[in-house]
Amino acid sequence: MIAVEHMVLAAAALGYGSCWVGAFNENRVKRILKVPENLTVVALLPVGVPDENPPAKPEKIFQGSVLQGILWNSARDVIANLFFVQFFSVP
Question: How much is the pTM?
Answer without folding.
Answer: 0.52
